[in-house]
Design brief:
The complex is a heterodimer of chains A (about 200) and B (about 250). Chain A has about 200 residues and is an alpha/beta fold. Chain A has helices at about 15-20, 35-40, 50-60, 65-70, 80-85, 185-195, and strands at about 5-10, 25-30, 45, 75-80, 90, 95, 105, 115-120, 125, 140-145, 145-150, 155-160, 160-170, 175. Helices cover about 25% and strands about 35% of the residues of chain A. In chain A, strands 2-1-3-4-14-13-12-9 form an 8-stranded mixed sheet. Chain A is globular. In chain B, helix 1 packs parallel to helix 2 and helix 2 runs parallel beside helix 3. Chain B is about 40% helix and about 25% strand. In chain B, strands 1-3-4-5-6-9-10-11 form an 8-stranded parallel β-barrel, surrounded by 7 helices. The chains are: A alpha/beta (about 200), B alpha/beta (about 250). The interface of A and B includes residues 51, 109, 181, 182 and 187 of A.
Chain lengths: ~200, ~250
């Protein structure tokens, strides 16, 4: 039987690209904010482009702020999705979902460092993770002005003036700061690794 | 380390690529999606689709193009050419575009930059500027380079950043089509005076020109069209050349 992937619909920009990426796999993907569909899906994707405080408000209005932390199946946060899984974001001083005990900070432009961090950068993988080692040091596509600080759950680290957590995993919560739906074949391999996780 | 980006630009009219592109491996070189896909497989980092259609059907064909690109190619892309309202931008975002570029509309009504950035985020807004060096002063041109505005280019790009543009696409009209190298000094001046990324466009004729714009020009990305379309430079060769020089490149 095909597995069901619920993609959390919260008015995020460019969720269409995530849906298109999922079409490449033999799965059923549903864009939804329905609690029942989300809690019973085999896996959940939490993508996003947007602003932290507006998005948190949107999640609260729909009760998704209590649903997401309670999920038991593998959940994958992408970009803003990763940041919202953390404790707090400097973006408009936003309290986030608190699933990952991690602070989200703003990049400070200095020494010619451009903000947003936009373009292809490398992921340096730690040992024992769910992503194939062949993807070590590969380039993936980033667009963001805020970053998750290094932490004990970081399994991917990226260097942009400072080192930050570009892939995080804690229990059933997985997250990538980069857009795997925009990262060419490498991004699709990482998405495939997530879809292949055994629950 | 963040890689320098190589960007290919495709001119689109009525949903088709213009200029006599000659690709033997493509069934239909006029199909922008097929060409974009080929570039993506060859390692291009990003694509820009610049629409030059001037009919009222434009909005529909552009959103269909964005949708088709997003569905078939999974690298970032920008759509530009005649985007002049929040509605235009909204439709393109929903169709799957990663960024839109605005040019003349922003010069005529600079507040649209603020509105777009507020509504969709700075990362979605590329300010395209066509500059021409006249009497030792860089001036902004609009309407595809036909109309001089009298606006000083360096002031304009700074204002665009302050209003919320997330990236600058700078085309030097003095260098465009000449294949004699990018406008190095002006690119460097923009890059050093701003905190957002700068794409250099106009003048690429060989691999050395890209190396120069990334080192001396301090550009974050280099854009070209015809040299890729006519295969004067193969994307993979260009990228391995730059990488051997120690420039950070995604291979």
């Amino acid at each position: 039987m095909k597995q069901t992937i619920a993609v959390i619909d919260y008015n995020a920009g460019n969720v269409q690209s995530v849906m298109f990426a999922l079409e490449k796999f033999e799965i059923d993907a549903i864009l939804t904010d329905d609690h029942k569909i989300i809690s019973t899906a085999d896996k959940v994707l939490f993508p996003g482009v947007g602003e932290a405080s507006t998005t948190m408000k949107f999640l609260k209005d729909r009760g998704l702020d209590t649903l997401i932390p309670s999920l038991q199946q593998p959940v994958l946060g992408i970009c803003l999705g990763l940041q919202l899984l953390c404790t707090h974001s400097e973006e408009n001083d936003t309290t986030c979902l608190g699933i990952l005990p991690v602070q989200v900070k703003r990049f400070i432009p200095h020494n010619g460092l451009k903000v947003p961090h936009m373009g292809w950068n490398q992921i340096h993988l730690t040992e024992n993770h769910w992503i194939s080692n062949e993807l070590k040091n590969q380039y993936v596509y980033f667009v963001h002005s805020y970053y998750a600080e290094l932490n004990e759950y970081a399994i991917g680290i990226t260097d942009y003036g400072i080192k930050f957590a570009s892939i995080i995993q804690k229990d059933n919560f997985y997250a990538t700061q980069f857009h795997l739906e925009k990262s060419g074949p490498i991004g699709l391999k990482i998405l495939e690794s997530f879809l292949n996780l055994k629950h | 380390m963040l890689a320098k980006r190589i960007i290919a630009c495709l001119d689109i009219k009525d949903g088709r690529t213009v200029k006599g592109i000659n690709f033997l491996e493509l069934r239909d070189a006029g199909d922008p999606v097929e060409l974009g896909k080929l570039y993506s497989e060859q390692g291009i980092d990003e694509l820009v689709f610049l629409d030059i259609t001037a009919t009222h059907e434009k909005r529909k064909t552009l959103s269909a193009l964005a949708r088709s690109v997003a569905k078939n190619i999974n690298i970032p892309f920008t759509i530009g050419g005649g985007v002049s309202s929040l509605e235009d931008a909204q439709i393109l975002l929903e169709s799957g575009a990663d960024k839109i570029s605005i040019n003349s509309a922003a010069v005529k009504n600079p507040e649209i930059i603020d509105q777009l950035a507020l509504e969709f985020g700075s990362q979605f807004v590329v300010l395209a500027v066509d500059g021409r060096l006249v009497n030792e002063s860089w001036e902004v041109y609009i309407a595809g380079g036909r109309i001089a505005t009298g606006i000083k280019m360096f002031d304009w790009v700074r204002q665009a950043q302050e209003r919320g543009a997330g990236e600058i696409l700078f085309t030097s009209m003095n260098h465009d089509g000449v294949k004699n190298g990018f406008a190095i000094d002006a690119t460097r001046r923009i890059s050093e005076s701003l905190s957002i990324p700068v794409i250099a466009s106009g003048g690429a004729g060989n691999k050395e020109h890209f190396a120069e714009v990334f080192t001396n020009g301090k550009a974050d990305a280099g854009l070209a069209a015809s040299i890729f379309h006519y295969k004067e430079i193969e994307i993979h060769d260009l990228k391995s050349y730059l990488s051997k020089l120690g420039i950070p490149i995604r291979l």
